[in-house]
Specification:
144 residues, alpha+beta, five-stranded antiparallel beta sheet, 4 helices, 5 strands, 50% helix, 12% strand
Length: 144
Amino acid sequence: MSSLLLPSKNNIDNLSNHISEKLAGLMGQYGISAAPETIRYDNSGTMILPDDYAYAEEFSQMLEDNPALEREMRAVNALSSHYAGMQESQAFHQEYQNASLAEQNAIAAKYSYLFTDSRSAADIALKFTPEGALTISVDGEHLA
């Protein structure tokens, strides 16, 4: 039985470190001399490699042959997305909690995008060094 990972910075960092270690070892076995600069996942969960990535076929085969690594990459992507959303809503909660009744409407208006169905998801990118070390980017910024 697998345990549930909560979207915490610690869990994201630990999973990123594990992926980095595993990826560095596997790339050599598959003749991959450089990791993709970024990996993104579309709304259906399909991995998107850069169009100009020279080792796309080898990288995809490596993940197919190592499903645990593929699951970890999907998991770190999902955890990062949830974590980013939680951080965004946390700012609202802090401001709203400390506001006077007169200020609460203005704060609710400021963060109204948090409460709409059409809210766009954060742009999560798994960013790799050529050696396979992973960092996470949210809307173009390093995940803090």
